[in-house]
Amino acid sequence: MPKESFTLEEATRKLEGYCAYQERCHQEVVTKLQGMGMIPLAIDTIVSHLIKENYLNEERFAKSFARGKFNIKKWGKKRIVAELKVRDISKYNIQSALNEIDDNQYLKTFEALAKKRLEQIKDKDIQKKKKKLADYLLYRGWEPNLVYDKVNELIS
Questions:
Q1: Whether this model's pTM surpasses 0.70
Q2: d(C-alpha 46, C-alpha 26), whole Å
Q3: What is the rounded distance in angstroms from the CA atom of residue 3 to the CA atom of residue 98?
């Protein structure tokens, strides 16, 4: 079955919609264009058009990503940074994204998440309970110093 082919104009319109629907990073857009069978020159042309017309903005993407993952998924800063690095976001934009997270809100969210998770752990063994809570919080990307202090505070 032959792959659908797109003219430069069609691909540009399609990607404008793709970027308007939600914030995207450059890597996602390039991958999408490659999947559409576009040649490298066309990809570069379309990406520069999207940047010029403000459909594509990595700083805006990074900020939106960080806010969303923190507010909705309750991820810690380490996990957010790791995920942004996977998407080839610059150090400057990663730092800018982390500044979107209020420090007081960050600690309140961490506290609430730790307490909620502790209530869900049914283990009677204190060491197993500590390990399960710590593993959960570390997996979510919270800083180890925060995690171990909180685990020792909540389980003694």
A1: yes
A2: 11
A3: 41
